[in-house]
Every structure is written in C-alpha cells, then in structure tokens.
Amino acid sequence: MNVFNRIVVILLSLLLLIGAVLVLLFVLGVVPPQQIIPAGIANTPLGQWLAGFANLPANARLTTTAIAALVALLSLILLYFELRPAPRDDTIVIREDGLGRVTVRKDSVHDLVLHTASSMDDVLQVHPTIRRRDEGLDIRCRASLRPESSVQTVSEELQTRVKEAVQRHLGLQVANVEVQAQLQPLGDVEPRSTPRPARRQLR
Amino acid sequence: MDQQLQAVIIAEELVGVIRELPGVADVYSDLFGSIATYGRGRRVPGIRVRTENGRLSVEVHIIANYAPDLDIHALARAVRTQIKNQLLKMNIGNMDTGAIGEIDVVVDDIRVDAAPQPTRKA
C-alpha cells in the first residue's frame, strides 16, 4: 500500500474510533453530550445527531452499544496494522550488480535445510536457526535422531549435507553449521512429515 | 494511457511470462498485498512495477520449484532475461536501453513437491 493510501486509512480509522468512542460514552451515559461536543457543533445536524444517542430507548441502547464497540475494535485493528513498524529485513542478498539485486528470504534457506534433513532416515525432527554473518551464514540445527543411530555420525553427515545443499542450490557462503543432536524428541517442533506447500501463492 | 494503468498492464504481462519458466512455481505475495502493482481498481500480486525518472524498475517475488539441480543464481538470471525480453517485446526500452532500470528478483519460498527418499547408512 502506498503512503497516500496508508495516510487515508489511518485518518479514516481515527475518525471511526473517535466517533465510536463518543457514541459509547453518550449511550452509556458516562458523559453528557453537551460536556464534550463543542458549542459551535452542538447546534449543527452532526451535533444533534450525536446528542441523540444520549436519549435512546432501552432496546436501541444495547444494539447501538454493540455496534459502536465493534466499530471501535475494527478501527483499532486497522490502526494497529497501519502503524506497526515495518517487519525486520529477513532477506539475504546473493547477488547485486548493475541490473539489480537477487535476494532470498531466510525462510527459503530454512525450507532447504528442512528438506535436506528430511532426506536422512535417522533424522526425525530438525529445527534450524539461520543467522547472517560477514563470513557467511551461520546455521544451527537442533535435531532429534532415531534412538539406534550414532549421534556423531549422523550429526556430521547432517552438517555436511546442509552446508553442501545451501552452497550448491543458493550459492550462499556457509560459515558454520552447528548440529545439536539428541535422541529425545524436540518438544516444540513438529515431527517430520510430508513436505508442506509453499507459504502463500497466488494464481 | 496513464502511467498507473500502464504499470498494471506491464505487470500482468511480466507475471504471465515469469510463470512459464520451469523453475518458477509461482509468484509470491504477502498476506497484506504490499507486494503488488496497483492501478485503477486493478491489482497484480507478486510484482512491483514502478516508473521513476523515465526508467522502469521491476521487483518480482517468486516461489522456486525445488529440484536436485536447483541453482538460484541461474533461475534469477532466467527470470531477469525473461523480463527484459518481454519488456523489449512490448517496445519498452528498445529505443533507449536506459528506459529499463533495475530488475530485482526475490526468492521468497522454495516449493518442495515430493519428499526426498530417505537414505540410511548400513
């Protein structure tokens, strides 16, 4: 969304929020309208319309309260999404020249590591963490192995395969691959299963 | 034709030819639609086409297809070439090559269709 659209949405959300809060205050009788509505507006159709919420019949009061609360909530959600800070850069530049830049998202590296690990029968679960360093990528893998497997042998093989896959497929320099292997399951990681589809795709 | 509408038409054409590339599973767009080209009620997700100072720049987001011989550098080169050829075909940049600015390629995801055959050491 461009900057102009974003400003328009922020202003509209603020207007909606202020309106909904005013209606709530009048309907619930927290503040009398004449205390908040400026004298200049009080006699205009808008001022009279707002003041009318203070004298609603009991059955209309409940519906109006619910609608105003919903509008206030929706405008708060809109404001949150428009004002939240930009997501941190999770891309890695793999090539930059006069024609432009080629970048990969860290998630792609993550996916590749998962795929590589899933080709090893002795690896049951893996949880990679990827960090960028000046010398190259720093990949740490927590892995759960089959109880009968050799931790050292499988860890070394996983290390080699991950490094080779990332360098070969993505052309990224890998500075270090650290494998923390255990025979117990990783509690916070889903067990290995069929590959999941791409995160989001559009046709 | 105004600039905004032209950008949307160019974006549609480019997305079409990018999807034809064998290593590309699809274009990628985020949940909030920030990766897109907008113009007059139309929206092309997965690509940003902009014109600044008379130069047309493109930023395309793709999902790559995993293959044992996957080479992201080669795929990105193919995407750039495909974009450049299509722009030239559309008479953008044929009079003055400077009309085509930077072509950025972002690989947002890798799609793995089949699980690899597990290997186990004897």
Largest sheet of chain A: 3 strands, mixed
Measured by DSSP, the beta-strand proportion of chain B falls in 25-35%
Looking at the chains present, what oligomeric state does this protein adopt? heterodimer
Summarize the helix and strand pattern of chain A as letters.
HHHHHEEHEEHE
* Count of DSSP strands of chain B: 6
Helix content of chain B: 25-40%
Total strand segments of chain A = 5
The SS-based structural class of chain A is alpha+beta
Radius of gyration computed on alpha carbons of chain B: 16 Å
Mean pLDDT of chain B: 83
Number of helical regions of chain A = 7
Shape annotation of chain B: globular
What would you note in describing this structure?
The complex is a heterodimer of chains A (203) and B (122). Chain A has helices at residues 3-27, 33-36, 39-42, 45-51, 58-83, 106-118, 151-170, and strands at residues 91-97, 100-105, 123-133, 136-145, 174-182. Chain A is built from seven helices and five strands, in the order αααααββαββαβ. In chain A, α1 runs antiparallel to α5 and α6 (106-118) crosses α7 (151-170). The two termini of chain A are 20 Å apart. In chain A, the strands form two sheets. Chain A has a three-stranded mixed β-sheet with strand order 3-4-5, covered by helices on one side. Chain A has a two-stranded antiparallel sheet with strand order 1-2. Chain B is α+β, with helices and mostly antiparallel strands and 122 residues long. In chain B, the strands form two sheets. In chain B, strands 1, 4, 5 and 6 form a four-stranded mixed β-sheet that branches. Chain B has a two-stranded antiparallel ribbon with strand order 2-3. The mean pLDDT of chain B is 83. The A-B interface holds A 1-2, 81, 91, 94-95, 99-105, 107-108, 111-112, 115, 118-122, 153, 157, 168-171, 194-195, 197-203 and B 25-34, 38, 45-46, 57-58, 63-64, 66, 70-73, 76, 80, 102-121.
